[in-house]
């Protein structure tokens, strides 16, 4: 049986990368850039995640589909590259799961018949949880979208909580 391929968006990284499991994990350079300055343990990313770029054809195909569905304005270049990568991998006959919570990403992927992760995939990923905290004043945050401390303005840091 073929190995399952998970294509990860940046929110997938924020919710934690699986330590173990049989899947293969893919993302694009754009996504990696986005999560890098959020200090999401890059050593761990490199040991688990294959970083690759989609084909130009796939990017074009995804872009024109996103235009048709009206999602294009909600999608960044990063989002499009990610959908395109999943599209490529899916076409190559792998068992692909695109992991994203983003509505526009999910919508376009669905139209292109790219399998989407169940939203409960997060459940399997509880092995590492990331905690956001401020090095300046010590305040901790749970909103993964925050980048700055609302108390003192320091750029927030992330650390992995010990697996339970
Ligand atoms: Zn602070």
What do these coordinates show?
The chain is of the alpha/beta class and 164 residues long. The protein has two domains: 4-123, 5'-nuclease (Rossmann fold, 3-Layer(aba) Sandwich); 128-161. The protein has seven helices and seven strands; from the N terminus they run E-H-E-H-H-E-H-H-E-H-H-E-E-E. The chain has helices at residues 10-14, 29-36, 42-48, 56-69, 77-91, 103-111, 121-124; strands spanning 4-8, 24-27, 49-51, 95-99, 129-133, 140-141, 157-161. The strands form two sheets. A four-stranded parallel β-sheet has the order 3-2-1-4. Bound molecules: zinc ion. Zinc ion (ZN) binds at residues 134, 136-137, 139, 149, 151-152, 154.
Q: What is the fold's blueprint, element by element?
A:
Blueprint: E1 4-8, H1 10-14, E2 24-27, H2 29-36, H3 42-48, E3 49-51, H4 56-69, H5 77-91, E4 95-99, H6 103-111, H7 121-124, E5 129-133, E6 140-141, E7 157-161
Parallel strand pairs: 1-2, 1-4, 2-3
Antiparallel strand pairs: 5-6, 5-7
Bound molecules: zinc ion (ZN).
């Amino acid at each position: 049986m073929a190995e399952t391929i998970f294509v990860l968006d940046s929110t997938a990284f924020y919710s934690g990368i699986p330590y173990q499991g049989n899947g293969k994990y893919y993302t694009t350079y754009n996504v990696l850039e986005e999560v890098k300055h959020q200090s999401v343990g890059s050593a761990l990313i490199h040991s688990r995640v294959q970083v690759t770029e989609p084909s130009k054809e796939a990017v074009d195909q995804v872009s024109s589909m996103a235009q048709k569905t009206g999602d294009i304005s909600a999608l960044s270049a990063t989002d499009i590259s990610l959908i395109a990568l999943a599209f490529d991998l899916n076409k190559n006959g792998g068992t692909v799961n695109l992991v994203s919570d983003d509505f526009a990403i999910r919508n376009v992927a669905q139209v292109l018949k790219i399998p989407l992760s169940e939203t409960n995939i997060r459940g399997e990923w509880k092995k590492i949880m990331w905690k956001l905290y401020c090095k300046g004043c010590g305040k901790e945050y749970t909103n993964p979208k925050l980048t700055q401390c609302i108390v003192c303005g320091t750029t927030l840091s992330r650390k992995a909580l010990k697996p339970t």
